[in-house]
Design goal:
With 493 residues, the chain is an alpha/beta fold. It is built from 19 helices and 20 strands.
């Protein structure tokens, strides 16, 4: 006779579920929700033996697990013949097509057409209450946020925690969302409070847009005022400081994360789903390009062929030694400088190291060109100056922006951008796709964009160098995204 196995699940709060079950079930759940972190063997905590390289999403001792992983628990129970006693009351909110149309029409957003996929993403988020919306850069995520904002302001009205928190990674994005809401017809001046360096943390306004850096150390009681939270660029929320924010929002029922891409690992996906909710793919870059809602993209992978002396010199060097050599290489920098100077239209040249590389590129390009405006953007350039550069570029046709990945790969919208140069090699899936997205917005007289992906061949004795192998990883991304690319070998002179 088979004994029925049971699992009791309930809400502890809006962050965690509480599971009660026999020890064997808890052990099995613990194993199921335990994952090795990619690259853990190279991390200092692992090397110092303070950590085993694993992330555990279920606590055997307390029975706690992120509320957003509820569907995974149900699925596991169904597959393992475990009966659920469910006290969570987690269920979809009904929303008919008639209700949706009535709400969207009532908004009367000026001069903007709500696209089908934006409306569908909005409905999905409202029905589920919590989710992670996966939608590429330039797909109009700010409009989706706005639709959710207005709806949740209505359904939270008269509740104790009636405010809405919108978390973004940069001050530029705070200001951009503030402006976007104005463009949609909302009175941002009266209703929206902005928080970043130097701004007051307390307000009577119901909408708060903040950088995560400004609020992650605030006490738990400060977060009790919010009934809904939207996390823009949600892929960043795996960071400890951002997880800290989300776990302080114990009374916040409605949670939506928005991102253009995930890093492709199961651990990253599950942590984010735990904090927000299940992933929902809104649309893709290629779908929007086919509908002519994004610019067509052409990628040129330019592999710089270094001479024999350079190959021999770099043989056996570490990754960091290779990077230091490449960013200081005069021939390489001269090639990038000439490329940026000769391109037609506005160009964004992205680099990784400010002092080692960015400054040299900027000064070289500025010396070479006489008929183009050249700008230099890095973490030390304040928000107002970045916004001024963006405005100038929007009205120009030959500007060159030399910018760090950290400042311009995320959150800066320049519709009038024609070319992107990857001057520093990177294998980060998120960084690459976010950076590409900078050039995909449409504008009058602009229907396509070009990416120049600079790579380096320092192969010696059939041993491939680090950054050349990183190009292969980027090409894998281009294949997965169905991007149009060509590979060209270029002799460095």
């Amino acid at each position: 006779m088979t004994t029925t196995r049971y699992l009791i699940i309930d809400k502890k709060n809006e962050v965690y579920l509480k599971i009660e079950a026999d020890a064997d079930i808890r052990r099995e759940l613990g194993e199921y929700f335990t994952f090795e972190v990619p690259g853990f063997k190279f991390m200092p905590q692992y090397r110092s033996r303070h950590w085993d390289g694993k992330i555990r999403l279920f606590s055997y001792a307390t029975g706690q697990i992120y509320a957003g992983l509820y569907p995974y628990i149900v699925d596991w129970c169904n597959k393992n013949d475990v009966q659920i006693v469910d006290g969570t009351k987690i269920k979809d909110v009904p929303m008919s097509a008639e209700d949706t149309n009535r709400f969207l029409k009532a908004l009367r957003i000026p001069k903007i057409t709500i696209r089908d996929y934006q409306a569908e993403a909005f409905v999905h988020a409202i029905k589920k209450g919590r989710c992670l919306l996966l939608s590429p850069t330039a797909s109009g995520k700010s409009l989706i946020v706005y639709l959710m904002l207005i709806y949740n302001l209505l359904r939270l009205k008269e509740k104790k925690n009636d405010k809405i928190l919108i978390i973004v990674p940069t001050t530029s994005l705070v200001e951009q969302l503030y402006k976007d809401f104005k463009d949609y017809g909302y009175n941002s001046d009266r209703n929206v409070h902005r928080i970043y360096q130097g701004h007051d943390k307390d307000t009577n306004k119901r909408v708060v847009i903040s950088t995560w850096q400004s609020i992650y150390n605030l006490p738990k009681k400060w977060f009790k005022q919010f009934g809904a939270v939207f996390g823009d660029e949600a892929h960043l929320f795996k960071a400890v400081s951002l997880t800290k924010i989300m776990t302080k929002l114990e009374d916040c029922k409605y949670r939506v994360g928005l991102t253009g891409t995930l890093d492709g690992t199961k651990t990253h996906k599950l942590v984010l789903e735990g904090l927000f909710g299940a992933v929902n793919k809104v649309t893709s870059t290629t779908e929007l390009q086919e509908k002519k809602q994004l610019a067509d993209l052409k990628i040129f992978c330019l592999i710089l062929q270094h001479d024999k002396g350079a190959r021999e010199f770099m043989y056996g060097k570490t990754y960091q030694e290779e990077m230091d050599y490449l960013v200081k290489n005069e021939k390489r920098n001269k090639y990038i400088c000439n490329l940026a100077s000769d391109l037609q239209g506005n160009t964004l040249c992205l680099f990784q190291y400010v002092e080692k590389h960015g400054k040299e590129l900027y000064e070289s390009i500025k010396r070479k060109v006489v008929d183009k405006q050249v700008f230099y953007v890095h973490g030390g350039v304040d928000t107002d100056e970045r916004e001024e550069i963006r405005k100038i570029t929007e009205s120009s046709d030959g500007a060159i922006i030399v910018a760090s990945y950290g400042t311009f790969s995320t959150g800066i919208n320049i519709r009038n951008l024609h070319n992107i140069i990857f001057s520093s090699p990177s294998k980060s899936r998120i960084r690459n796709l976010q950076s590409i997205g900078r050039g995909l917005r449409l504008k009058d007289n602009k229907s396509n964009a070009t990416l120049y992906d600079i790579a380096d061949d320092l192969t010696h004795n059939e041993k491939e160098n680090y950054t050349l192998s990183h190009l292969r990883e980027r090409i894998n991304i281009y294949n997965e995204e169905d991007f149009n690319y060509e590979i060209h070998n270029v002799e460095l002179k």
